[in-house]
Inverse folding.
């Protein structure tokens, strides 16, 4: 009788123990047989993952043979897809058994390393160095490698620049180390204000690069312009104070000479990262200060002069009684020739070249503007902006030389040009007319046919052409400039070229366009550039207080 009872008790015990085992997490159950593996898993990044997630049919014992090994892609599909598209994944696809898999970098599944740990961060160069030994050796001696060895978690390792799983060839446009993305990649750290402050890094490196020609050209999509890596190196980046550094003062001629042969052979290269108001050379600072004073002053006076002139003429033509206005006696005199056919051709070439220079020049400085994007969108494949800019510059300089030669060769043109030569009465006329436009007195002064208005325009064009031409040639032949002159000369030319362009462009729009379009005496257009004869002299009106000009004096100024 005891045997059946004993068997019943034993059965209950076995059933209870089985239920207890099934109630435990699979990991704990597995640990009863796989204790060593369980300890490894608990210490790994997979410590929070239950064994049953990866190991199917674990509940069958003994475990059946031929159960497929779990794949990382079953849980990490996105990461697996990135790896498959990377250079490593493509090598595996081509049958290269030496190409790294997940286990090579992260470790075996039961010993998976925590990628957020300090030890994993420090070990990345060694991990990559298993295949890229030479590069890893260079990296370890660089400023970045030394910072990693000191245990600085913010110090960049291979994956910070190249990416983690989707590592692409530098020639791939999507790669973070492609020439078009180097600035952004380096800027992750060197554009971070907090990191710069914490580690004492110069905070202006990204800003000063963006403001330089290299940075502006890179922003437009140029693939050939120098970027951070071109000067500082790639894996062997060293402090500028290190004699081995590519940016050490003694090595700059060789570094810059890769793009600018002969640069720094006669004069030291000097400061590279320059920022207005902080690190700019003294000559550049004076250029900036001069133009920052000159541009608002000159353009401000032009605006006041033309606004006052427009209001005066508006009041006379629209708001004064008709009886108070009389026809100008100038309408009865002979029409004056403003531009001969040859001069009109010069003017047409000057207009086209100037507008092209303005567009293509400021498109480099402001490539994000809608009118700039239209032009620079081709820069990555075909440098159309730079080609157009240089062609327009060549046309403008050719027009200037042709103009000078024509004056020397033709007495007719020379006599006509003499009317634009400054004379003593220009200054009183300018002061009196400006006072009249400002409503400081009511008597309108007599203005010469070729007055200070036309003369100021002409000589401003002469000055601007000389300045822009000289500075532009230095920038165009930058390698030759750096070979024969110190770098500060190129910086000086760059500053002058930009500020003079701003002044010239604003002067054309404010001063010249008013004279030939918005002036009520010529509106809607002064057609002398087409016909050679000014419409102002036929349609202009004067006021009762305006003294009649001496016809004899006017006739004397007709071109012979």
């Amino acid at each position: 009788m005891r045997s059946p009872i004993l068997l019943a008790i034993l059965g209950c015990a076995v059933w209870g123990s089985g239920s207890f085992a099934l109630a435990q997490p699979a990991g704990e159950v597995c640990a009863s047989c796989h204790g060593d593996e369980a300890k490894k898993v608990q210490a790994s990044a997979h410590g929070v993952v239950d064994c049953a997630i990866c190991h199917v049919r674990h509940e069958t014992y003994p475990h059946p043979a031929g159960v497929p090994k779990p794949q990382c892609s079953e849980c990490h599909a996105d990461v697996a897809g990135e790896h498959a598209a990377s250079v490593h994944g493509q090598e595996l696809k081509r049958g290269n058994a030496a190409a790294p898999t997940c286990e090579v970098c992260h470790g075996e599944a039961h010993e998976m390393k925590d990628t957020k740990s300090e030890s994993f961060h420090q070990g990345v160069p060694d991990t990559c160095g298993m295949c890229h030994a030479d590069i890893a050796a260079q990296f370890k001696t660089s400023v970045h490698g030394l910072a990693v060895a000191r245990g600085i978690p913010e110090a960049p390792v291979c994956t910070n620049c190249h990416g983690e799983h989707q590592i692409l060839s530098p020639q791939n446009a999507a790669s973070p180390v492609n020439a078009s993305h180097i600035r952004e990649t380096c800027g992750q750290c060197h554009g971070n204000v907090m990191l710069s402050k914490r580690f004492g890094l110069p905070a202006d490196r990204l800003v000063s690069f963006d403001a330089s020609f290299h940075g502006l050209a890179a922003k437009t999509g140029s693939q050939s312009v120098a970027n951070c890596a071109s000067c500082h190196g790639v894996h062997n980046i060293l402090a500028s104070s290190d004699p081995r550094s590519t940016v050490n003062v003694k090595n700059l001629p060789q570094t810059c000479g890769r793009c600018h042969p002969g640069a720094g052979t006669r004069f030291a290269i000097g400061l590279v990262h320059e920022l207005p108001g902080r690190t700019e050379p003294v000559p550049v600072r004076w250029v900036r200060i001069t133009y920052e004073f000159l541009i608002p002053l000159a353009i401000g006076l032009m605006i006041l002069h033309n606004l006052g002139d427009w209001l005066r003429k508006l009041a006379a033509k629209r708001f004064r009684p008709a009886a108070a206005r009389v026809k100008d006696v100038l309408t009865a005199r002979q029409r004056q020739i403003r531009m001969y056919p040859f001069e009109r051709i010069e003017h047409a070439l000057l207009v086209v070249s100037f507008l092209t220079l303005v567009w293509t020049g400021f498109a480099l400085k402001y490539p994000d503007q809608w009118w700039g994007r239209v032009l620079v969108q081709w820069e990555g494949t075909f440098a159309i902006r730079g080609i157009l800019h240089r062609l327009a510059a060549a046309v403008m300089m050719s027009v200037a030389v042709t103009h000078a030669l024509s004056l020397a060769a033709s007495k007719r043109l020379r006599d006509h040009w003499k009317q634009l030569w400054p004379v003593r009465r220009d200054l009183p006329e300018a002061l009196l007319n400006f006072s009249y436009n400002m409503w400081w007195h009511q008597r309108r002064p007599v203005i010469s046919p070729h007055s200070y208005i036309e003369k100021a325009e002409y000589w401003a064009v002469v000055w601007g052409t000389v300045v822009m031409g000289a500075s532009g040639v230095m920038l165009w032949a930058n390698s030759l400039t750096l070979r024969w002159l110190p770098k500060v000369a190129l910086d000086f030319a760059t500053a002058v070229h930009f500020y003079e362009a701003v002044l010239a462009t604003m002067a054309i729009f404010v001063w010249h366009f008013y004279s030939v379009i918005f002036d009520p005496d010529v509106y809607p257009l002064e057609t002398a550039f087409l016909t050679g004869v000014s419409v102002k002299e036929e349609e202009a009106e004067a006021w009762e207080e305006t003294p009649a000009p001496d016809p004899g004096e006017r006739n004397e100024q007709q071109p012979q």
User: Anything to note?
Assistant: The longest helix spans residues 282-319. The chain is about 60% helix and 0% strand. The longest strand covers residues 325-327.
